Amino acid sequence: STLDGSTTSVVGGAGNDIFTIGSNHQTSAIAGLLTIAGGTASAGGADILNIDDSADTSNTTSILTAASLAGLGMADVIIYGTVETLNINFGSGNNTLTISASNAGTATILNTNDGNDVINVQSISGPTTINAGIGIDTINVGSNANGTLANPNNNSGGLLIGIGSVLTVNGNNQAGGGSDTVNVDETADPIGRTGNLTSTGL
Predict the structure, then answer these.
(1) What residues have CB less than 8 Å from 135, skipping those under 6 apart?
(2) Which of 57, 72, 63 is closest to 21 using CA atoms?
(3) Is the pTM of this model over 0.70?
(4) Which residue pairs from 38-44 have beta carbons closer than 8 angstroms and sit at least 24 positions apart in sequence?
């Protein structure tokens, strides 16, 4: 946890460091600014940042950028850098996450877990994996992806130029008959494009 109004910085060294954020698997105790910095790339370490909100039963709204994460019930922001892997674990509520950017040097992995979640992927620079959990999840891809719980498929008038790395989406077999949806939007592009859609990729 961090105190309201405080600033806390944690800096890794030359080794392989693991940073885990979450008190009893919830992030709501982050009340002050928290900065996580892994070792420098030249040090050759493989640092991992785990953000664990898996016990949270409430609905949350979050925004991920190339350098920060806001939301998940936190009163302040997590600033991160020079970590090679970022793992984000949702709770069982109906959660919304907008990825406005991701870090080119970081592999980002999101586990949505239970709940009907909405993930908006507007831009990524590093490899990004979304593992949809139990529930009816919606993944919107495009620069204007703005899905909400009330309007999960809100994704039009955008471009895919911001998808600068591999995006992997893994759905989940729905025992109750539900289904996950991926909406990919390039409708704002005035130039004709040729794509290749297979059973596993686009």
Answers:
(1) 94, 112, 114, 115, 116, 117, 172, 178
(2) 72
(3) yes
(4) 38/12, 38/81, 38/82, 38/83, 38/84, 39/12, 39/13, 39/14, 39/15, 39/82, 40/82, 41/82, 41/105, 43/13, 43/14, 44/14
The pLDDT value given to residue 39: 79
Residue 15 has what pLDDT? 85
Q: What would the two tokens of residue 151 be?
A: 């309007």
Over the chain, what HEC string results? CECCCCEEEEECCCCCCEEEECECCECCCECCEEEEECCCHHHCCCCEEEEECCCCCCCCEEEECCCEEECCCCCCEEEEECCCEEEEECCCCCCEEEECCCCCCCEEEEEEECCCCEEEECCECCCEEEEECCCCCEEEECCCECCCCCCCCCECCCCCCCECCCEEEECCCCCCCCCCEEEECCCCCCCCCCCCCCCCCC
Give the model's pLDDT for residue 21.
97
Q: How far apart are CA 118 and CA 60, in angstroms?
A: 10
Closest by CA position to 60, among listed 10, 110, 19, 101 = 110
Assess contact for 23 and 33: CB atoms under 8 A: no
- 10-residue mean pLDDT profile of the chain (202 residues): values are 91 91 95 91 78 97 98 96 96 97 96 96 98 94 98 98 97 72 97 92 94
